[in-house]
Amino acid sequence: MQRVYEFFRRHPTWVDSFWAVVLLGISAMSGSARGGEATSASTAVAVPITVLLCLVIALRRWIPEKMLLLAAVLGLAQLVLDMAVVPADFAMLVIVYTVAADGARWASRFGLVAGLCAAPLSQIRWPDQHSSGLGQVLAAVFLSVPFALAWVLGDSIRTRRAYFAQLEERAARLEKEREAQAKVAVAAERARIARELHDVVAHNVSVMVVQADGAAYVLDAAPDQAKKALETISGTGRQALAEMRRLLGVLRTGEHQESGEYVPQPDVEQLDDLIEQCRTSGLPVDYKVEGTPRPLPSGVELTAYRIVQEALTNTRKHGGPNTGASVRLVYFDDGLGLLVEDDGKGAPHELYEDGGVDGQGHGLIGMRERVGMVGGTLDAGPRPGGGFRISALLPLKPAH
Fold first, then answer.
1. Nearest one of 232, 258, 235 to 245, comparing CA atoms
2. Name one Pfam family in it (predicted).
3. In the list 67, 91, 126, 186, which could disulfide-bond 53, CB 3.0-4.6 Å?
């Protein structure tokens, strides 16, 4: 039974054809019941009109506008040829409903007008001799009501379909917007994690490499210095692991994390430790703080720390031997200024001019992204007298 229902739901024209045959049978039985009242001439007119009216029922969903015009022509033919109303005229009501629900707007309006005119015209063509003028008017109004109701029902179904179509379209649009926002959020999170990984790995690994090279160089001649270098490597490695655990914690949503498992994110107060670590690894750093230190937004403090960390890492990587660096931290009323300079040979031009070539320059890209996130500005490039210079201004209020 379910299969039969699904078949007819997918093939509504078959259902309409069935009802057209039923209507044709009812019309035939009605004609037979009248018997001798019908002449051969009236039968010759009634049969094709009845068949065509049943055809209107069968094809109403397929070509509703054309079937409406056919029904209107058949109705006029009945008036002109003086053909009495037959059961097949029920097709007039059906086609008015159909064009109101599924047809073009012009067809819907035309169907309403034609349906409302059908009853008055029939009263004029076949007046009731036993009724007064008022009675005939009331009869015309009464006979027009079914056409009006059929049109209202069809138009309400059209409106309801349009409403649900708008809801579906809106839901689909919102779903696409949510997917786009999710992709943007994922991309932003991936970029943030990539920046953190780069800053943590690049700085700490570079310190460990320098210390390891130094330890190997003085291992035989100065065991105490080699031991100190190895201790620095160990401490740097532990620090890197702690920061990696903190970073990876954002990926472990839903898992229970024990209190104190991850260290807080770096801030300006930890710049002293960072610079001391650089000095221990063999990079002389002059550090100055100007203005009155005060608590800053966590995003600004993390950005300042990472800029200094990456700048000193670049100095260690690209500055060459006997390179010194200076870090200047300036507290303004409405912002925090950073200036990191070195007197080395400087980074390759493509790292700061093209934003990185062949996978290089991620540190500078990350710095620009960090500064942009807090609404600040960053400038990076070679110094006129040699070396490299990075300056940044971080506002204390986010940009609007």
1. 258
2. DUF7134
3. 91
